[in-house]
Amino acid sequence: MTRRHTATVLPGVPRGAALDALGGVEQAAAIHVMPNLVQPQPGFNPRGRYLRPGQDPFSPEALADLTASIREHGVLTPLLVRPRPGGYWIVAGERRWRAFEAARALDAQEGLPERSGLRTLPVVVRSLSDVEAEELALIENGQREDLDLVQETLLGFDLLARHTGLPRDELPAYLTRARNYPERDEFGVADLLRRTFGTGLSVWVQQRSKILRLTSEERMAVQTGRLDAKVAYQLLALPEGAERQGVLRAAVEEHLTSALVRERVQRVLGVARSEAHAEAEGLRRMLGRVDRLSDDRAIQARELMQQLRALLEEDSPRKARR
């Protein structure tokens, strides 16, 4: 039975307004706390799940501009935190926290007096469950401008799974239903996607759901710019395996267009159908020999034929439903 729960509702925040909890942080009453009380929760930040090889959003180089700004002006936007024993866990704003710590360290190295903007951290404290905190962290990361297509898609489906309680593989069907029948969007995902990513349901139904079906190698080719997403989608007509990998390599090395990849895929499928037809014809001709077998072998052959018939009959209704 599919696990379901209602969409996340934050304490004091109306149903369906989880995004406002982030958008309202700047206007909320912030408190200033000592820096040592604020820590990132180990393994909590969802950003690390979607990084490309070699990508590090917390490296000194990646934080350089933000660190320089905080040294001069302090932290202008409060961090969203939740209570923990003896302090606070960061829900949103880990980059600001790391840049703040880097700014303090640089001042100390240079022997500068402590700046007023670096003595305390502005935070907004919310009592959040693990589920609520993770959803807000996913939303914050989803609104970043440096996400590539694959990162945004994987993060988006994780957010949808967390928000709806549905397994990831059931989400494309739910999104299709919500697009076709808006009144059946019980979790309000159309609004969630629009406000988080600026995209509508049709984009996630027609394009983003295909990203989930790509192999890790295919996703990496898209992320690194070696393969256009529309070209990668053509590979989905093939089952995973050596032939699909071969078409992928050709597409990358020869810079094939979507139309050319589609032609190669159809060629592979045509060969596969021809081979399957030839095997079926050969088997049909050999079935006439069953009566010539000894009793034991004839019984074994008929059992195998019954198994084959059962498999084919089981598969026929599936194809009829597609």
Automatic annotation (TrEMBL):
Q: Which domain of life is it from?
A: Bacteria
- Extract the InterPro entries matched here: Chromosome_partition/occlusion, ParB/RepB/Spo0J, ParB/Sulfiredoxin_sf, ParB_N
> What protein name does the entry list?
Chromosome partitioning protein, ParB family
Which NCBIfam families did the record assign?
Answer: parB_part
Q: Which GO terms describe its biological process?
A: chromosome segregation
Q: Which Pfam families match?
A: ParB_N
SUPFAM superfamilies from the entry? KorB DNA-binding domain-like, ParB/Sulfiredoxin
Q: What range(s) does the ParB-like N-terminal domain occupy?
A: 31-142
* A GO-annotated cellular component: chromosome
| An example Gene Ontology molecular-function term | DNA binding
Belongs to which family?
Belongs to the ParB family.
